[in-house]
Amino acid sequence: MTDKKTGQPIPRNPTLGEKLRHLLISQEGVLFVIMLVSVLFLATRTDKFLTVDNLLQQGRFMTEVGLIAIPMTYIIITGGIDLSVGSILGLTAIVLGWTWQELGFPLELAIVTGILSGTLAGFVNGLFIVRVGVPPLIMTLATLALYRGLAEGISEARSARGYPEWFFQLGQGEFLGIPTQLWLLIIAVIVFGIVLARTRLGRALYAIGNNELGARFSGLTVNRHLLFIYTFSGFMAGVAGYIFVSRVSTTRSDMGTGIELDVIAAVVLGGTSIFGGTGSIPGTIIGVVLIQLLKNGLTLSGVTSDATIVVIGSVLIFAILVNNFIQSRREES
Question: How far apart are CA 13 and CA 306, in angstroms?
Answer without folding.
Answer: 49
